[in-house]
Amino acid sequence: YYLGAAHYRSHIEFSEEALADAATGYRRIEGFLERAAELASPDVLAGGEVPAAFARAMDDDLGVPQALAVLHDTVREGNSSLAAGRREDALVAAGSVAAMTTVLGINPGDEPWASAAGADSALRPVVDGLIRVALEQRREARERKDFAAADAVRDGLKAAGVVIEDTPAGPRWSLASGEGSAGGSGGSGSNDRDDRNDTNDDASGNES
Predict the structure, then answer these.
(1) Pairing between β-strand 162-167 and β-strand 170-175 as defined by DSSP bridges
(2) In this structure, how many other beta carbons lie within 10 angstroms of the beta carbon of residue 129?
(3) Are 66 and 104 contacting, i.e. CB atoms less than 8 angstroms apart?
(4) Strands 162-167 and 181-182: what pairing?
(5) Are the C-beta atoms of 83 and 188 separated by less than 8 Å?
(6) Exposed / middle / buried, residue 75 (Cβ in 10 Å: 0-12, 13-18, 19+)
(7) What does 44-77 look like in DSSP terms, one character per residue?
């Protein structure tokens, strides 16, 4: 993703910061596709089409930077649709994102990326189970209005590199580096509100 983000006629000035920014951008794409995949089968996402603006950018001397701008705009729109509960709009956006990433050779569901992501698949259920124990403790603390304890659970997970995002479907976790997720990932951003201020989730019973 980093090497392909610049136009092929341009020079790339390497820096650790630029590499980290590229990783963050890619994880945002990956996180959106993971969340959208929970709403439908992979076949639905595989049937998407690239937007006309993306095709025009690629047809114009392989304008990858402009094509990536279209890709990230579509990811933002898709995340907004997910947050608003607009399932069909989110799936349309996800199909387009999958199609665009396939053209660019960076679809996280395609080889070799899928195999690389599955290298630690045996460990992920264990980590997920441990984190869900902590989330259950957090939920119980919030129910009894012990917000200090709930915040301590969240802060402890964050210190360990685990970011919690509260969503209408319940809490989701992701690694702070963006690598790996369960119940979705933090591609749309994490939710670091203190539990004492998180009254909307308490009222709607989003935790499960």
Answers:
(1) antiparallel
(2) 10
(3) no
(4) unpaired
(5) yes
(6) buried
(7) HHHT----HHHHHHHHTT--HHHHHHHHHHHHHH
Q: How far apart are CA 91 and CA 36, in angstroms?
A: 6
Angstrom distance (rounded) from CA 141 to CA 32: 30
Closest among 162, 153, 135, 144 to 194, alpha carbons compared: 153
Q: What is the pTM of this model?
A: 0.64
Q: Give the Cα-Cα-Cα angle 148, 159, 131 (nearest 5 degrees).
A: 80
Which stretches of the chain score pLDDT less than 50?
178-181, 183-192, 199-208
pLDDT one-digit tens code per residue, 133-155: 999 999 999 999 999 999 999 99
Single-letter amino acid code for the residue at 64: V
The token duo for 15 is 């820096």
Packing angle, helices 87-104 and 16-37, rounded to 10:
130
Cα angle vertex 23, ends 194, 56, to 5°? 115
Condensed to tens digits (0 to 9), the pLDDT of residues 195-207 reads: 655 544 444 444 3
